[in-house]
Amino acid sequence: MSIPKFYIHPQDSALKHFPPLLSQHIPLSNAIHNRLRAPQNTPLRHCLFATTFPPNTPNSTPSEPWTILFSDRSRLKESQIWIFNSLINSPVPLSPQESDTLNLQVKEAVHFLKNSEVKDAPGWPFDPLLRFGGVHSLITEVLVTEFRDAISYITRWNMYTIPTTTNPDPGSENSPLHSLEKKTNTLPPGFTLSLIPTSHLPLIISTSSIPRQAETLKQQANACILNTEGEPVAWVYLGLDGSLATLYVVPEYRSRGLATIVARELLKRLEEGGFEDLGIRGSSGWVHAEAKDGNVESETVMRRLGGCVAAETAYLSLDSEKI
Asked: pTM to 2 decimals?
């Protein structure tokens, strides 16, 4: 079996041809689909868009299986690399030949990323760590098997997929958001729903177990609950990949249903077009969220939002100097 080759696509071409391919695999492809379309991917960031098929493929329909890569190494300590392979959505276990193809494409993707210089990107030269986000378990196992000695960090999660609407009318009784209105606790007296005040970003960053940058958070859709003193006590962001992220409730305000309320508010504003000032115009029809297995509180919130586990994912870092 020949070694696959990765081709760099110009940004305008990638944003035209990649989303239609990925949309056929939503919700499993939700992370990279939304990451590609995020308005923060300005040409000045010099993001890397690459696939196993060349630009100008006839009819823009490549033969399968294919791999799509999106990389923004200037994200520094945040997740930088998103990868999707069309075999992930296979309804049956992969055949030996399909497994071999997946292995080859993933291995070559790592070498391609290591050897791709993006000298015009902010932050160049980059840290040698390749930081992957939301990696499906099939790809994770290839990375762990082939590059075990180079992995410096890995965490595994359950990916919940959550429909943002099932009906053109968000007020319909068939809408998950409508049902959620009935089931969710009400706000305590004097508490209000709001956007997150920028003055409280240090608090948001300090309570996150995942590295966050203030400038990135300022560009993301968000919602919070303010107490009677105007202090945020619960908050959530919509990540650049369309994920519910940084969901947090201040310890003394837990067990009141605030996490579900604030997440519901974010989804409601998203579907109503409430974040167009940030360049966010609706969603793929899904959001997703990653919860640690056994994190009862997070899993309960995801189920209350209508979510279910679609896959196991991982966040991991590979030291490219050890490859």
From this structure: 0.85
Under 8 Å CB-to-CB from 242, ≥6 apart: which residues? 30, 31, 33, 34, 35, 283, 284, 286, 287, 288
pLDDT at residue 263 is higher than 50? yes
Q: Kindly state whether residue 129 falls inside one of the protein's structural domains.
A: yes
- What are the φ and ψ backbone dihedral angles of 239, each rounded to 5 degrees? -65, 165
Do 149 and 191 reside in the same domain of the chain?
Answer: no
Residues 53-79 have a mean pLDDT of: 85
- Owner of token pair 């790592």: 110
Domain containing 85 equals 7-159+311-322
Q: Would you tell me the crossing angle of helices 258-271 and 176-183 to the nearest 10 degrees?
A: 150
Q: Give the total number of structural domains in the chain.
A: 2
Residues 6+ away with beta carbon under 8 Å from 196: 204, 217, 222, 223, 224, 232, 235, 237
Flag whether 58 is in a domain: yes
Same domain, 254 and 199: yes
First-to-last C-alpha distance (Å) of the chain: 22
